[in-house]
């Protein structure tokens, strides 16, 4: 265990007038989109989202945590508010303390009366929130390198792997791999330094799989997009852009993160995954896009920090990078508030007018319906939409409203391309 966690540096913040300011990330949960709460920043003495990212990445400067125990304690404090009345620790009367639900170990109450009042709502999600509480700690192993664990070669053609039920049997017995992680030094250090008992091994194995599924969900969703639009990676190299990429896709990213595509399309002509977004995190994937493909049978990953439509003007139009064969958007969230749709509007119109095949994912059916409405108002042709067969299996809690039903990353998707045919565009009536 490290004796000292490095301190916080100056962080990137797009600015208060930007549609991509930290307000979108932190306040989006009020529209049913998971996000980090301002409470987290206050408790960790951080001024913005970028400082939080820097701390998780181990690039901190300024504020120090003496050890991992202190770090985990501070993280737990970000969840300490009364789920019933929203009272914070500093607002408690003398002698009062916030006590955790003993079943889920995830929510807190300031009094027994608050707990009793909240129980009719909390009992609906208590068991699920217990899994959330385990996962948010085990997820730390993504940054230690224990996760994701390696996967097996595909024993079926890609056309026959339509969902998790088709993918899992190809993986064989993962017991030895999972047991190695369970008995590893990082797992031991984790539960030594958190303020809760270590779950049993069966719970931890399931947690490891849920976190693994979230990682793989992005890759398999890209593969689904390739298949949906009948792109042929054996006929020519493919360029795939991830528009609106953020810390979720790029924090701790490795150049091997999309190698599952090699197993989906063995012997392909080359695939480049280019992540573009204003909150792309610096790391080994921060390099220019490819001008020409290198050796075949490889997946190349690169990243560009900035808005997608500006990237198009600065890079694609100047032929510094290839036009995309497919654009992916993981949880763009443009339904959440007017600022987000204004920020996404130039990109959506660009993708429409250039007739680019696109696949965007959503957290929930509600977000799917709202996003469909926005795209139809922009006269964008919807090719397909619905539940994603490769949705993450890891439940996501809306942190400021713990008793909301958890949602799942990439749980729904929309495929769209080009502009609606004229016959599908409603003409204004005489009374409009």
UniProtKB/TrEMBL annotation:
- Name by which UniProt lists this protein: MYND-type domain-containing protein
UniProt domain MYND-type: residue ranges = 82-126
Q: Where are the transmembrane segments?
A: none
In alphabetical order, the GO MF annotations are: zinc ion binding
InterPro entries the record matches: Mito_gene_expr_regulator, Mss51-like_C, Znf_MYND
Q: Which domain of life is it from?
A: Eukaryota
Keywords from UniProt, A to Z, are: Metal-binding, Zinc, Zinc-finger
């Amino acid at each position: 265990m490290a004796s000292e966690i490095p301190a916080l540096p100056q962080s990137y913040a797009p600015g208060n007038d930007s549609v991509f300011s930290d307000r979108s990330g932190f306040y989006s949960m009020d529209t049913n989109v998971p996000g980090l709460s301002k409470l987290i920043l206050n408790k960790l003495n951080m001024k913005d989202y970028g400082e939080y990212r820097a701390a998780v990445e181990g690039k901190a400067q300024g504020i120090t945590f003496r050890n991992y125990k202190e770090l985990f304690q501070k993280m737990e404090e970000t969840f300490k508010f009364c789920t019933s009345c929203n009272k914070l620790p500093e607002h408690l009367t003398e002698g009062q303390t916030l006590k955790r639900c003993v079943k889920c170990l995830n929510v807190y109450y300031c009094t027994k009366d608050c707990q009793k009042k909240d129980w009719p709502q909390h009992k609906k999600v208590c068991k699920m929130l217990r899994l959330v509480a385990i996962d948010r700690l085990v997820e730390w192993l993504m940054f230690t390198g224990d996760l994701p664990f390696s996967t097996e070669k595909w024993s079926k053609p890609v056309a026959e792997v339509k969902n998790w039920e088709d993918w899992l049997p190809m993986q064989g017995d993962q017991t030895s791999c999972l047991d190695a992680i369970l008995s590893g030094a990082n797992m031991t250090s984790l539960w030594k330094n958190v303020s809760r008992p270590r779950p049993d091994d069966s719970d931890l194995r399931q947690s490891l799989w849920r976190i693994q599924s979230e990682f793989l969900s992005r890759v398999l969703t890209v593969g689904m997009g390739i298949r949906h639009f009948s792109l042929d990676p054996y006929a020519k190299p493919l360029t795939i852009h991830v528009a609106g990429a953020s810390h979720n896709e790029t924090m701790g990213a490795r150049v091997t993160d999309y190698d599952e595509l090699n197993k989906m399309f063995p012997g392909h002509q080359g695939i480049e995954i280019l992540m573009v977004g204003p909150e792309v995190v610096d790391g080994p994937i921060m390099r220019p896009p490819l001008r020409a493909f290198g050796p075949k049978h490889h997946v190349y990953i690169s990243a560009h920090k900035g808005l997608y439509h500006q990237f198009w003007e600065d890079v694609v139009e100047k032929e510094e990078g290839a036009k995309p064969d497919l654009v992916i958007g993981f949880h763009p969230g443009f339904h959440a508030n007017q600022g987000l749709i204004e920020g996404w509007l130039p990109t959506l119109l660009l993708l429409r007018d250039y007739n680019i095949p696109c696949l965007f994912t959503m957290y929930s059916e509600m977000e799917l319906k709202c996003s469909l409405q926005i795209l139809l108002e922009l006269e964008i042709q919807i090719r397909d939409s619905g539940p994603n067969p490769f949705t993450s299996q890891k439940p996501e809690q809306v942190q400021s409203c713990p008793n909301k039903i958890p949602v799942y990353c990439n749980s729904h998707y929309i495929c769209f391309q080009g502009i609606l045919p004229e016959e599908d565009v409603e003409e204004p009536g005489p009374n409009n």
